[in-house]
Amino acid sequence: MRALGPHDLSEEREAFRAVVRDFAEQEIAPQAERWDRDHEFPVETVHAMGRLGLFGLPFPTINAIQAVQLGLPAAYIQGYGTSDASYTVGDLSLFGQDDWRLGRHLTVNVGVRYQRQFWPNTEYTAPGLDAYRFPSDNNNVAPRLAAVWDPTGTKRTAVRAAYGWFYDNHITGLNGITTILDGGPDGVRTLVAQLPDLLPIGAWNARGRRLSEATVGTYPSLKFIIDPALVTPYAQHASIGIDREIASDLAVSASFVYARGKDQPGTLDYNPIVPELGAGRRPEDIGGRPGTSASILQYTSFGDT
Fold first, then answer.
1. Which site from 65, 119, 291, 295 is most exposed, i.e. has the minimal number of CB atoms within 10 Å?
2. Separation CA 169–CA 92 (nearest Å)
3. pLDDT band at residue 4, thresholds of 50, 70 and 90?
4. 109-131 burial: b if 16+ Cβ within 10 Å, else e
5. 133-149 average pLDDT score
6. Cα-based distances in Å from 97 to 109, 113, 146, 162, 240
7. The pLDDT of residue 12
């Protein structure tokens, strides 16, 4: 089998080769040494290569390890701006309980707990919503009930049962995250770029694997917000069991325990990519143009455990 030479190329392929050669000689070769020395990523040059159709060439599918070896990251996530903020939160908790002896064989324990968190007066804005503050959930009253029954009166057998409602404080970082990662000029602006956008490749080849915000130019920022209807997560616990003393140093027991958590916080993207709208389109894209809006991650009370 002989190797292909220039005379084997069609006129179309020869013309394309000439365009690439001219571009490399005029646009890349004069700057290549400086770019390599300064670890600079020439965004405009790469965009020009894209306009020539160079990134439309077919290439084989590769796995993640091969992509790392070749310097082809799938995504680039970078924050810019001020990444610290001070805030104060408060916590109030009250608890009371009492025991009642109902005859010789039965003891009942009743309790109640109230708790509330106090948050900074942070204002949030999001597309489709009026401005709102961090929600306040102030009805967190949690009852507890337990009983112990000695059916024989010999104090060698005990039947136990308990039920309780347990609220869990939100981690205070919810306020810090949504205050700092707000996508605004005074907080952190978060760039999320994915292939076929060329920025991930540019960042991989830049000094420190990082692009400056000036190099990136204008971009839509990811942002975190709080659900206006956020509520405090809670769990219901119940148990029933029996203990039996067989000898002075030996006892057996059997128990059933139930636990169910509700309203656990998690993030939902309220501006995801929706294929039905078009390639790369999100509901909040400006003028329906892909890439003009980013994810809006809202902490929402939706998790069950």
1. 65
2. 10
3. very low
4. eeeebebbbebbebebebeeeee
5. 92
6. 7, 9, 11, 14, 20
7. 67
- The closest of 79, 84, 295 to 190, measured between CA atoms, is 79
Q: Percent of the chain, pLDDT > 70? A: 87
Contact 180, 84 (CB under 8 A): yes
Residue 255 one-letter amino acid: S
Tell me how far apart the alpha carbons of residues 295 and 224 are, in angstroms, rounded to a whole number.
Answer: 9
| Residue 263 backbone dihedrals phi, psi, to 5 degrees | 60, 35
pLDDT digits (tens, 9 = 90+) for 88-103: 888 999 999 999 998 8
Residues in the chain: 305
Average pLDDT over the chain, rounded to whole? 84
DSSP 158-171: EEEEEEEEEE-PPP
Token pair listed for 121: 């007066």
Eight-state DSSP code of residue 7: G
Other C-beta atoms lying within 10 Å of the C-beta of residue 22: 10
- The CA-based diameter of the chain, rounded to the nearest angstrom, is 107
- In 47-127, where do the E strands start and end? 75-81, 90-101, 106-118, 123-126
pLDDT digit string (tens) for 121-133?
888 888 778 899 9
